[in-house]
Write a structure and sequence with these properties.
Length: 547
């Protein structure tokens, strides 16, 4: 049994440089704060990408920062390793994380931090006993993107949690996972992402990684900024999403999409608002050119990021950013010629025209205003806010299950689910009682009733034999005293025919139907309980109550 989720949240926070360093002392302080006092710290080894307990540092050039906590006690049957990946550190003196956010998470053209995360895992597991090991993974923001990505590629994690995590980029998976790459090729006939519709690739990935997704969950604060962004060719694989905070908090503005079109009209054409640039197309329809320009600017920005990310490494970009702080023009002059040539060829003057248009674009103004109005929601993204909300007394997250294959959110209402379980168990008990009554009728009551009827008939036989005239009269026959031929008595056959098999077969058929219903309902209840235990794993007391 691994650490509970709230404990893992606090351990994840230790990865940030602004907090205490992750070492045995800080780990002990966290575990003590959650009343975990039965740990022998001689059983724990901490591995860090900075070089602690591994051969050499990993991630200096990419900005990757990870740690692993190995808890091992052979006698007690404990062999757990917790991989913890840090989120973005915003530091212009060390901008590698910010660079990777743009060129890895958003553009999907840099794999360096995932490569380093995979190298770190490999390095750790050469130093531990992997026989029967349970692998846990946690990551906040960028760290969540990394831990979920490697969990899909490695396929051997038991439980992975993304905390306000960035999404997984399908361009990276297609390059890094040979099995997924082959799967894409077989189904799409190409691995060129630009030739594959985004919706089809996402559905293909959800189907391919369905088994791995069962071990993945996401915990996020309602209204935090990252989840709202519609980054192309990204998705959130997993079995469930746990929401914290006020469920009435609106979603943060998606800066990658312009204003919402009017219902019934296409993305380009909409009825004009009060301000903006429009061209009349007749019939009362106007082209919203501000909206078109906003889309163009976003597309050019993504193209710009993609081209630079494909032509330069994270280390080169970080060095360029460092120069740009002091001398932006000198930094631009150091841009590789291959970048300039591709920008001219693939983007052309569109980014310049679009950029100038943005100066008077109402869609840009609306988006900027929306972001300013929601500025307080930036704090919801922090690991500190997530931990604070998670640890609130009486806290109960709102849980959504992700429908396999589509990622559709299905609200999990715990009261309703438990009530449904109780209703099924009640129905099962009624089935058992009904089946018991049928067994009693088949094996006891039926024979008792037959015996009673036979006794009644036998009694009637004796009475009629003693007065045969009454029997004949009852049968509709009368005889006069002068009749030439008349009976002198009535003889009854004393044996009874056995109960017809058809009567018993009908009862046996009903019993068989009830037995089948019972087996199906029993299996349904067992499966339902197992699912509830998985859903309520974070609430151990509730999970244990489902017996």
């Amino acid at each position: 049994m691994g650490f509970e989720d709230n404990t893992r949240n606090a351990i994840t926070a230790l990865q940030y440089e602004s907090g205490e360093p992750l070492d045995i002392d800080s780990l002990k302080k966290v575990l003590d704060s959650y009343n975990i006092t039965d740990i022998n710290y001689n059983d724990i080894t901490i591995y860090k990408s900075s070089g602690e307990n591994i051969d050499s540092p990993i991630g200096n050039e990419s900005g990757f920062d990870g740690a692993a906590i190995h808890h091992y006690n052979e006698e007690k049957g404990i062999n757990d390793v917790y991989y913890i990946f840090r989120g973005t550190e915003v530091d212009l003196d060390a901008p590698e994380d910010v660079v990777y956010d743009a060129f890895g998470v958003v553009a999907g053209v840099s794999d360096k931090q995932i490569d380093d995360a995979l190298d770190f895992i490999e390095e750790v597991e050469t130093n531990i006993n992997t026989n029967g090991v349970k692998r846990y993974g946690d990551g906040h923001s960028l760290g969540g993107h990394l831990i979920v990505s490697v969990a899909l590629i490695e396929r051997n994690f038991d439980d992975v949690r993304g905390l306000n995590d960035a999404p997984v980029n399908l361009k990276q998976l297609t390059r890094l996972d040979e099995y997924f790459k082959d799967h894409v090729m077989q189904n799409m006939g190409t691995t060129n992402i630009s030739d594959i519709p985004e919706e089809e690739l996402v559905l293909l990935a959800r189907d391919f990684y369905a088994a791995e997704a069962n071990a993945i969950s996401h915990t996020r604060v309602k209204g935090e900024p990252l989840y709202a962004q519609s980054i192309p060719y990204t998705f959130y694989p997993g079995a469930s999403i746990h929401y914290l905070g006020d469920m009435e908090t609106p979603e943060f503005p998606d800066v990658l999409t312009p204003r919402t079109p009017w219902p019934g009209l296409t993305e380009v054409f909409s009825r004009p608002p009060m301000f903006g640039t429009f061209v009349s197309l007749g019939l009362g329809i106007n082209a919203d050119l501000d909206r078109v320009a906003y889309n163009a600017n976003i597309n050019h920005l993504l193209q710009f990021i993609t081209i630079i990310g494909e032509e330069m490494t994270v280390a080169e970009l970080s060095e360029l950013i460092g120069k740009a702080k002091d001398n932006p023009w000198a930094a631009l002059s150091d841009m590789p010629e291959s970048v300039n040539e591709r920008l001219k060829e693939e983007v052309g003057l569109g980014h310049i025209v679009g950029g100038l248009w943005a100066l008077k674009n109402t869609a840009v103004y609306e988006k900027v205003l929306a972001v300013i109005n929601a500025k307080e929601q930036f704090d919801l993204h922090s690991i500190g806010t997530l931990i604070e909300l998670y640890d609130q007394p009486g806290h109960q997250p709102v849980t959504y299950r992700l429908e396999p294959g589509t990622g559709t959110h299905i609200l999990v209402d715990e009261d309703s689910l438990v009530n449904a379980l109780q209703a099924m168990e009640g129905a099962l008990e009624q089935k058992r009682e009904a089946l018991g009554l049928l067994y009693h009728y088949r094996n006891m009551e039926l024979h008792e009733r037959i015996f009673e009827q036979r006794e009644r008939v036998e009694g009637m036989m004796s009475n009629k034999e003693a007065n045969w005239r009454a029997f004949l009269q009852e049968a509709g026959h009368t005889y006069s005293k002068d009749a030439i031929r008349k009976p002198t008595g009535v003889t009854f056959r004393k044996e009874f025919d056995p109960v017809p098999s058809s009567a018993v077969e009908q009862i046996d058929g009903i019993i068989e139907m009830y037995e089948l219903d019972m087996r199906e309902l029993e299996q349904l209840v067992l499966d339902y309980k197992e699912n509830l235990r998985g859903l309520f794993a974070a609430d151990e007391a509730l999970a244990q109550s489902i017996k």
